[in-house]
Amino acid sequence: MTAKDFFSFKKNRFLWGNLLAMVITACLLIFIVLKMLDSYTRHGQAIIVPDTKGMSVFQAEELFRTKGLYCTVADSIYVKGKPAGTVIDHIPAGGRKVKDGRTVYLTINTLNVPMQPAPDVADNSSLRQAQARILASGFKLTANELIRGEKDWVYEVKYNGRALEPGEKVPVGSTLTLVVGDGSGGVPESDDRTDDSTDESDL
């Protein structure tokens, strides 16, 4: 075969055969690579994340396991009224599509109720001021406990029947009781009459 025949594109069957073989080989390689990528990434295979809010961690783990997923506790917060250890939220959220074997990160309600100092309102606040400060701090109040003293003056703050020390911590959202003066001035009226009669007899 001469050089003229080799470079003659219309007549050179060997050249066209090689080009066709190269194109076919390239297409086959691309097809195989794409198939391997689909297999590796599980293309088209998705699992819908179940919503486990309100479940215990154990229940959530069991449910995720049946779906081919894993879970781990990533954070904890305190939500009043929710049982300790229950799932508050998770990422990815329920209803999202993920790959098989994906890890779901849980946020649970803390097992320990956080503590917070009760506002220091004893012997320095009126009833209205004390109520405003305590409610603003996230605590609740029961009916006031009345004692003899200056009217609407707060003498103590109680938790579970016990007087709190200044700055003492109690569980967040606890119910407190204010010990308030009833306006009698702190001295019973019977005692006043007794004192007056005693003075007159002495005279």
Tell me what the structure shows.
The chain is built from five helices and twelve strands. With 203 residues, it is of the alpha/beta class. Among the domains are: 49-109, 2-Layer Sandwich (Trypsin Inhibitor V, Chain A), CATH 3.30.10.20; 115-181, Trypsin Inhibitor V, Chain A. The strands form four sheets. Strands 7, 8, 9, 10 and 12 form a five-stranded mixed β-sheet that branches. It has a three-stranded mixed β-sheet with strand order 2-5-3, covered by helices on one side. The protein starts with a helix and ends with a helix. The model is unreliable at 187-203 (pLDDT under 50).
Overall geometry comes to rod-shaped
Oligomer: single chain
- The tally of helices reads 5
- CATH fold field value of the domain at 115-181: Trypsin Inhibitor V, Chain A
What is the SS-derived class? alpha/beta
Quick one: biggest sheet?
Answer: 5 strands, mixed
Query: Which CATH first-tier class of the domain at 115-181 would you pick?
Result: Alpha Beta
Q: Unreliable runs, pLDDT <50, ≥5 residues?
A: 187-203
Instruction: Give the mean pLDDT.
Output: 82
Sequence of secondary-structure elements: HHEHEEEEEHEEEEEEH
The radius of gyration is 40 Å
Number of strands: 12
| CATH architecture grouping of the domain at 115-181 | 2-Layer Sandwich
The helix content is 25-40%
Portion in strands: 15-25%
